[in-house]
Amino acid sequence: MAAGVSPAPPAQRAFFRNALGARTGSGPPAAAARALDRPIGAGYRRAVVRFSMSQITTLGWPFERDVEVFAAAGAPAVGVAIRKLEACGVAVAARLLRAAHLGVSCLTSSGPIPLGDAAAEHAAVERARRHLDAAAELGAQCLMLLPGNAPGWSWEEAAARARPLIEALLPHAAAAGVRIALEPTSQLRMDLAFLHSFDEALDFVDAIDSPWLGVVCEVNNAWIERRLYDNIAQRTRRIALVQMSDFKIGTLTASERVVIGDGDIPLRRIAAALTAAGYGGWYDIEILGPAIEAEGYDSVVPRAIARFRELWD
After folding, report:
1. I need a labelling partner for 65 at 20 to 30 A (CA). Which of 80, 83, 103, 128 fits?
2. Is position 3 within any domain?
3. How much is the pTM?
4. Any alpha helices (H) in 146-227, and if so which ranges?
5. Rounded to an integer, what distance in angstroms lies between the CA atom of residue 312 and that of residue 85?
6. Where in the chain does DSSP place strands (E)?
């Protein structure tokens, strides 16, 4: 073992194993359990923080390259992109992840559900069921779901149409042991969702009130919201996943993100609020856009992981 590097302490490993196993009442997937025994650098504060690197960050790479680089950079887990998973195949993906001792935080993303088209809605729900099965096979804690939208409909009309479709997925989610995480999007992406804020997504999920349904706290959108810190403190149990990235003020297009620490989001403050609230779920580092492509994935991945860890120093 390298000098100045030590394995995670037993208490931390036990916490992670218990948290991962709570989903099904059994122990965590073997790959995730082994990942907890990987060394932690001496400069890294031993906080109870679970994080993954999203395959959306490395859009141009195949599944195999992601696994190789993420593991080498010290990521304990992967946020699996459904598009890459379908290209690779679940069995091959599971084998690659096991060999690299990588866990899986989430699958991203199922949907969107084309609201108002009954046949297309049915097809989207069936695809989501298959994605839940794939998530369970990989040991993922949640499946991110884009709830869709319908042009010209009011928010209330879209919510009323989406609710029974999402509720229809909950028995399958419970059987698979995988939580559904609704994903609010930028208002510029009305094609993907009628939910455009963390706050309104929490309200929607509260109305359904299922332990198998939660919300993605997408920090790139949520950081400027009214009631953000109150929602983190008071509705922590509804947070199924926290998606981490950074944003530079002056950016005028959707999904144009920067590496953690290169932008203006008060990430350390948000991380502290989540910790104080008792959030113990996954953080998924998802960064994309021209700045990421220009810098190159080989540089972005280790730099983003190092910056993420610094939030808890």
Report:
1. 128
2. no
3. 0.84
4. 155-176, 198-208, 219-222
5. 31
6. 5-7, 39-41, 50-54, 77-81, 103-110, 142-145, 179-182, 213-218, 239-244, 282-285
DSSP string computed for 12-44: HHHHHHHHHHTTTTSPPPHHHHHHTTSEEETTS
Segments forming the whole domain that contains residue 230 = 47-310
On whether residue 203 sits in a domain, the answer given is yes
pLDDT in tens, 220-279: 999 999 999 999 999 999 999 999 999 999 988 888 999 999 999 999 999 999 999 999
Within a 10 A sphere around the Cβ of 283, how many other Cβ atoms?
23
Letter for the amino acid at 166?
A: I
- Backbone φ, ψ for residue 257 (5° rounding): -110, 170
Domain for residue 32, yes or no?
A: no
Amino acid found at 158: A
Do 221 and 262 touch, CB atoms closer than 8 A?
no
What CATH number is associated with residue 142? Answer: 3.20.20.150
SS3 274: helix
Residue 43 has pLDDT above 90, yes or no: no
Task: State the total domains in the chain.
Answer: 1
How many helices and strands in the chain, by DSSP H and E?
A: 13, 10
- pLDDT tens column, 294-304: 999 999 999 99
**Helix-, strand-, coil-residue percentages of the chain, each rounded to 5:** 45, 15, 35
Cα pseudo-dihedral 222, 228, 232, 238, rounded to 10: -60
Distance CA 186, CA 180 (A): 19
Looking at residue 48, its pLDDT comes to 60
Token representation of residue 220: 């790139």
Q: Tokens in use for 252? A: 């005028």
What b/e readout covers 178-208, taking b as 16+ CB neighbours within 10 angstroms? bbbbbbbbeeebeebbbbbbbbbbbbbbeee
Q: Decide if 120 is inside a domain.
A: yes
